[in-house]
Amino acid sequence: MVDFTGWSMPVQYTSIVEEHHATRNAAGLFDISHMGRLLFKGPDAAAFVDSLVTRKTDDMPPGRARYALVTNQQGGILDDVLVYHLTDGSGTSYRMMVVNAGNREKILHWIDQHRPAFNGDVSVSDATRDWAMIALQGPLSQELLAPLTPADLDAMRYYTITETTVAGNDAKISRTGYTGEVGFEIILAADAVTAVWDQLFTAGKERGVVPCGLGSRDTLRFEAGMPLYGHELNETINPFQAGLDFGVDLDKRDYPGRSALVAARQRSDDPVRVGLELDSKRIAREGATIFAGETSVGTVTSGTFSPTLQRTIAMGYVTPERSSVGEALEIDIRGRRAPARIVRLPFYRRKAERKSGS
Length: 358
Description:
Elements: E1 2-4, E2 7-9, H1 16-25, E3 28-31, E4 36-41, H2 45-52, E5 65-71, E6 77-87, E7 93-99, H3 104-114, E8 123-126, E9 131-137, H4 141-145, E10 160-166, E11 169-175, E12 183-189, H5 193-204, E13 210-212, H6 214-223, H7 258-266, E14 272-278, E15 289-292, E16 295-306, E17 311-318, E18 328-333, E19 336-343, H8 351-356
Helix pairs in contact: 1-6
C-alpha cells in the first residue's frame, strides 16, 4: 500500500504481471475511488462545463460521455477529464466531470476562479468522498456484471453511461476504460461498494478474475498508448503535442487557452509524443535522453516492460523531424545507449479491434 495523492492505494495484490495478464485474458477489478467526481447542476450547468473544456460538450444527449481537456491560458494541459450527461430520479439533467486524483483540488480551484465571470445558474459540488468507483476490465467483464444489474449492457456503446442498480444498489455504469480492454466503471455510494466488489470477485474468482493495483493499471494503460497526467501530460504540454487533437474543438465558443491553442495548431516545431520499442530489456525511465546520433532530440516520459508483448517499450517527446514511425534512435539508460525505434501507438490492440481494423 502506498500514499497516492492522499489515498491509501495498493500497488499490487499478487504481482503486477499476474494482474496484467488476468485483465487481458479474463477480467481485472480495480478500485478507482480516488478519481475525482465533480457535479454540475442547474439550468446552465451544461453551458458552464462547456466554457471550461476544450471540446464541445453541451450538445451531448443524456447517457453520453466525452473526453476533453482543461487547459491554462497558455494552452498547457491542467488535466484530461471525462464529461458525462446524466439525469437524476426526477428527470433533471446534470453534468459530471471525472478528473485525475492528483488534479482534483487544482481543478476545483480553477472552477472557482471562473465561476464568478459565468453569467448563469449553476452549482458545483464534489462527490468524490460520497461515491466510490470501481472498474471491471477485461473480456469477461460484461458476462460477470450482467447478472447483477438490469441495465442492458449489450446496448451500451463506448463512452456511454446509464443510471441503474447493481446488486440492488443505486448506481451508475459507464463504459470507458483505461486498459485497452472492454470494460465498465461502476459508481455507487461509498458504503455500498464493498458488497458489490465482493460479489463481482466471488462470481469471477474461479474464472481467473483478480483484484488489480496501481502497477498493472499503469502497464495496461501503457500498452494501450494512453497518456498519463504527470508523465505524458502536464501544464507545459499542449494537446496537439500529446496527440490529443480529437479532444480539441477550435471552432467552439471561447474557453481558457483557446487562442494559444489556435497558435499552437499552426506551429510545426513543438516536440511530439511518440511510442518507442527498445532492443534492450533495460527499461528507459522518465527523464532519459533520446538521441539521434550525437544530437539530443527528446526525452522519455515513461517506460516499462510489456507483459503482453514481451518487449521493452517507452513513450516520450521528440522533435517533429525525428518522429516518423520506423525512425532509429538511441536512449541513454544510466549512461549507456540502448537502440530504439519509433512505433505506431497504441502498442497493443485487443483482438476485436484488430479484426475490425478500428
